[in-house]
């Protein structure tokens, strides 16, 4: 018998679960028919999440109201503005819902090569409860509007996007090459601002994004919003803690801070939808790949490095800025391998990349609420590596070319898993 107390049944069960490691495998491919059905269901699930927002957030406010009303009368009297503030919050929620409604209203036909038919599960316009997970994604997407398309996000973009843009300009000087012939890929493009900025400088730029929350929203801002600061969101209303004043919670943020349609007329800018690793299989295609707050979204970051290595042209560069907040680290049943920067750096070099620039400490924020009493600061790594003209690494023997489809602005393309 082992030393110490015997384990109780629950502990044993926990241990059994512990040994059931999530298996590292590529995504299971179903038959084309099943894939279609799953995609359609996912599409409608996300549309439903957009529609459910108001109900979800109003319920949060209702809970606050119930709790306030349960306080003794003399305590309630100390806060005469508390309930009026909740009414203001409700108006902000209604307003956000109108924007979300506008976002989803025309996304049924947003993909060039795909129609999603009718919502089979929902009967007509009936809204079904959405998961907390999806509601959190939606709230993050609302905050991404601040980072990408508002004056408020300018400082954040200066910290995160500008170093990348500067490296694109330095490596492909516009007075020495034709920028329209330089192909830049931005995987994990979010709401598309970095890709848009690169295209705005005349480079041929493609953003790629996996999340339908982001894709619906970037489609809206890139294709449907042309009036500078013409629209308003209330991104901070979901934050009930760490507010210095009630007014901070209901601060409006206007967007877009630039007209997304103001790109030079002949510029080649596009967005693709789907998993970066599934879509980009064609070897030696890109002159530059720019990743910002992206590589830690991988189940296995080595797969990302390999894909980037494969699809970069010999002589092409990979620019990266971001932290290593591994997205799958704490998700049950998800494979996740969390490597330190030192380990990633070593792998990059083993692949054969040449390190051309490295800054190990670039402070930056991510969708920061600048009035909040809690603020996160990331200490990012920033590097530029080059795939040499001649490669010697054994992994890089040419494989069969895959296909990659491209869509020109303004329409998006759906490709692979979403
Ligand atoms: C942390 S966000 C960064 C967004 C943007 N680059 C920025 O700096 O604001 C990471 C983005 O990568 C997207 N993403 C995650 N895995 C992806 C994949 N396999 N292919 C394409 N996009 C992916 C997510 O949906 C998310 O929008």
Automatic annotation (TrEMBL):
<dbReference type="GO" id="GO:0030735">
    <property type="term" value="F:carnosine N-methyltransferase activity"/>
</dbReference>
<feature type="compositionally biased region" description="Basic and acidic residues">
    <location>
        <begin position="1"/>
        <end position="10"/>
    </location>
</feature>
<protein>
    <recommendedName>
        <fullName>Carnosine N-methyltransferase</fullName>
        <ecNumber>2.1.1.22</ecNumber>
    </recommendedName>
</protein>
<dbReference type="Pfam" id="PF07942">
    <property type="entry name" value="CARME"/>
</dbReference>
<dbReference type="GO" id="GO:0005634">
    <property type="term" value="C:nucleus"/>
</dbReference>
<keyword id="KW-0808">Transferase</keyword>
<keyword id="KW-0949">S-adenosyl-L-methionine</keyword>
<feature type="region of interest" description="Disordered">
    <location>
        <begin position="1"/>
        <end position="20"/>
    </location>
</feature>
<keyword id="KW-0489">Methyltransferase</keyword>
<dbReference type="InterPro" id="IPR012901">
    <property type="entry name" value="CARME"/>
</dbReference>
<dbReference type="InterPro" id="IPR029063">
    <property type="entry name" value="SAM-dependent_MTases_sf"/>
</dbReference>
<dbReference type="GO" id="GO:0032259">
    <property type="term" value="P:methylation"/>
</dbReference>
<comment type="similarity">
    <text>Belongs to the carnosine N-methyltransferase family.</text>
</comment>
<keyword id="KW-0539">Nucleus</keyword>
<dbReference type="GO" id="GO:0005829">
    <property type="term" value="C:cytosol"/>
</dbReference>
<keyword id="KW-0963">Cytoplasm</keyword>
<dbReference type="GO" id="GO:0035498">
    <property type="term" value="P:carnosine metabolic process"/>
</dbReference>
<comment type="function">
    <text>N-methyltransferase that catalyzes the formation of anserine (beta-alanyl-N(Pi)-methyl-L-histidine) from carnosine. Anserine, a methylated derivative of carnosine (beta-alanyl-L-histidine), is an abundant constituent of vertebrate skeletal muscles. Also methylates other L-histidine-containing di- and tripeptides such as Gly-Gly-His, Gly-His and homocarnosine (GABA-His).</text>
</comment>
């Amino acid at each position: 018998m082992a030393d110490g107390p015997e384990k109780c049944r629950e502990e044993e069960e926990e241990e059994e679960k512990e040994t059931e490691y999530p298996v590292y495998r590529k995504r299971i491919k179903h038959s084309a028919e099943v894939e279609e059905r799953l995609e359609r269901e996912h599409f409608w699930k996300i549309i439903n999440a957009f529609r459910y927002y108001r109900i979800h957030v109003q319920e949060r406010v209702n809970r606050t109201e119930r709790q306030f009303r349960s306080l003794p009368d003399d305590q309630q009297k100390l806060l005469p503005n508390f309930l009026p503030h909740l009414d203001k919050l409700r108006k902000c929620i209604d307003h956000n819902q109108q924007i979300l409604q506008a976002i989803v209203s025309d996304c049924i036909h947003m993909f060039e090569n795909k129609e999603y038919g009718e919502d089979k599960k929902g009967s007509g316009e009936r809204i079904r409860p959405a998961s907390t997970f999806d509601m959190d994604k939606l709230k993050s997407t609302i905050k991404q509007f601040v980072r990408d398309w508002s004056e408020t996000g300018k400082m954040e973009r200066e910290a995160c996007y500008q170093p990348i843009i500067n490296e694109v300009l330095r490596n492909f000087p516009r007075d020495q090459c034709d920028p329209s012939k330089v192909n830049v890929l931005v995987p994990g493009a979010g709401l598309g601002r970095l890709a848009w900025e690169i295209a705005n400088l005349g480079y041929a730029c493609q953003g790629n994004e996996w999340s339908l929350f982001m894709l619906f929203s970037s489609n809206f801002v890139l294709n449907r919003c042309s009036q500078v600061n013409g629209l308003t969101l209330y991104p901070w209303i979901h934050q009930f803690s760490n507010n210095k004043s009630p007014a901070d919670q209901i601060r409006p943020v206007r967007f877009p801070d630039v007209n997304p349609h103001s790109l030079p007329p002949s510029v080649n800018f596009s967005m693709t939808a789907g998993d970066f690793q599934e879509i980009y299989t064609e070897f030696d295609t890109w002159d530059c790949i720019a990743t910002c707050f992206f590589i830690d979204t991988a189940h296995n970051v080595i797969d990302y490095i390999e894909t980037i290595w494969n699809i970069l042209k010999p002589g092409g560069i990979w620019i990266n800025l971001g932290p290593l907040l591994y997205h799958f680290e704490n998700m049950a049943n998800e494979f996740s391998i969390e490597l330190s920067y030192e380990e990633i750096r070593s792998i990059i070099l083993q692949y054969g990349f040449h390190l051309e620039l490295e800054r190990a400490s670039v402070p930056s924020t991510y969708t920061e609420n600048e009035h909040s009493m809690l603020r996160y600061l990331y200490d990012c790594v920033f590097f530029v590596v080059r795939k040499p003209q001649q490669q010697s690494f054994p992994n890089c023997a040419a494989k069969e070319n895959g296909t990659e489809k491209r869509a020109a602005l303004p329409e998006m393309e759906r490709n692979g898993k979403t």
